[in-house]
Amino acid sequence: MRDKVRCVVWMTGYSGSGKSTLAKGLHEMLSEINIHSVIIDGDVIRQEANADLSFSDDDRFTNAKRVVDIVNNKNTDLVIVSLISPFNRIRDYARTNCICNIFLETFVDSSLEVCEKRDSKGLYKKARRGEVINFTGVSSQFQKPVNSDIIINTETISVQESTLELFKKVCSYLEL
């Protein structure tokens, strides 16, 4: 029988808010203090395990449910999930169904305008032209989290400061 995951850090926010960057930084900082973690990145999951899903509201929920299943099959100290998770019901489902001792909903907060300026993949431009359907913030809504355990505003502080702030907050919840 496998052990429960000790902690899940579930990062939510717009595309371009910095979720993946923070996940990588957190992972590196945790490894420096011998906390084993794995990253589940929404972009990677969409290309691999969930390539069969669209971006409809129902498929977004199915995507999140599958991610929860992946989390629950990890035997590690900490799982970092980087997933837009645009709806409260998705985040509530994750909080309720992830097998862990500590679940930390982490809102990576950055305005839609700033995320569009950071748009390294050109997705916002495509969505504005109608080439991408159901794109969060453009043609599909994002419900701002109301119960986040951690909020990191990547709009007002640097990547390094954001990562350090996240690391410190996660460590405080883990009582390290």
Key descriptive features of the protein:
alpha/beta, globular, single chain, 5 strands, 176 residues
Task: Describe what you observe in this structure.
- The chain has 176 residues and is of the alpha/beta class.
- It has a single domain, classed as 3-Layer(aba) Sandwich (Rossmann fold), CATH 3.40.50.300.
- It is 42% helix and 18% strand.
- The protein has helices spanning 19-32, 42-47, 57-72, 88-97, 112-117, 123-128, 159-174; strands spanning 5-12, 37-41, 78-82, 100-109, 150-153.
- The protein has a five-stranded parallel β-sheet, sandwiched between helices.
- The longest helix is centred in the middle third of the chain and has 16 residues, at 57-72.
- It is globular and about 45 Å long.
- The model has no long low-confidence stretch (mean pLDDT 92).
